Give the backbone structure.
Amino acid sequence: MAVDLSDKAWLGSLLLEELQRFDPDAARAKLPADVRTAGDSPTDLAPGSRLLVARSLRHRRLADGPEGREELFLDEVRGHVALALDLALLAGEPFLRTRQEAELAGFLAAALGLPALALAVEPEQPGGASTRAVERALRGAGEALQDRFFPPGDPVGGLPLHAGTLAILRRRLARVVLGYHRQGRLLPEALARHGSYAAVESALLAEALSGLLGAALAPADARTKGIRLRQLARLGLGRAELRRARKAVAAPRGPEALAAAAPERVRPFLLEQLLLAQLRARLPGEAASAFTEAFAAAARLDAQALVQAQVEAAAQHGDHELWFEAFGEGGVPADWQALADEWEEAADHVVERVSQAVTDNLGAVMTEIRETGELGTLLAKAAAGHALTADEKRKVKAQLIDLAKAVPALAIFAAPGGMLLLPLLAKLLPFNLLPGAWDKAAAPPGAGNGKGGRGAP
């Protein structure tokens, strides 16, 4: 049954559909072992939660058909529901469909900044949550989702905010869900704390992206400035927070000041969003890269955090199909659907393994890249949207496999099916937007160049 967004009860209809099709046993069996064992103890759910949130944001689809903006929006909402259900399984909670509906209504309302509606949905109270409280929470959450996330994407000339605001909502939702399962109920003080943290993330994200575009593009005209300021109304900020955000977006601080102002836990997220914005907007010139590099150096992120931000940005950037075509012998692979299905299965494992392998072998990887002849030039050409000849495609494939063979930890790229992993490696390595930090990480101890890394002044 199609979900009708013009119906005020649309979110309740979507939730009912998702719960009816949800198979808790199959979902529990599908929950990856690395997610279940990510914490130091069975009760330490935060690391597994972070993995689930990251995986929920990665772009997996290949050969997408034309989709309307309503279906894209509804897919994002289904992603919120799926994340909350997976987190409940991670916490070891039994699946009871009626109770789950009430919990999800409370979780979504809380994550969207509607604490009164969320707290009114209390499954633990005598008799359980009332039908009216659940309906009110779902209607309020549905209205907030439409106000803030529909239509999906960003307006022409606007800030590339959508991906980051979606991530902030998923992160906030995860904190709400884990807090509930840890305490057995939603706590007003916890919801207020989650809301304040999300507001800080949102305001810093908007300011950072405004600074990035300001560094890379010509000064915005009055119309463009108006578009960007109107976008801020979709962040869900309070009046005072919104006024401060508008001032910051109109006159953003430099990357060093932004890094200093950002809480330590927010800095990797901001770096990831800056990298993702560069990939999606194809910002011209070196100014955007210089802005991002300056932010990363001032944030004093270690090598693992730098690589992880690059890998996550590449994984969230939906151009996998173009890269697979670039590596193919004759354009589109013979069995495109089989390749798409295989990529769906491999995507999460690829992202996490690439990040660790590259971090652990950074010096060797960078040495091999410098010695692989035309690889960097050809990949830069492909990334710029220029078609490669059949001979150039064969050279790219062969040199990437040689790279994988030269670094044992990257042998997964030369194994059967390893070509599925090459797009992430390709997007990560030749377009190193943080050369100072990477060179320092690859250098022997004490040989730093004064840029990036934890040892930078």
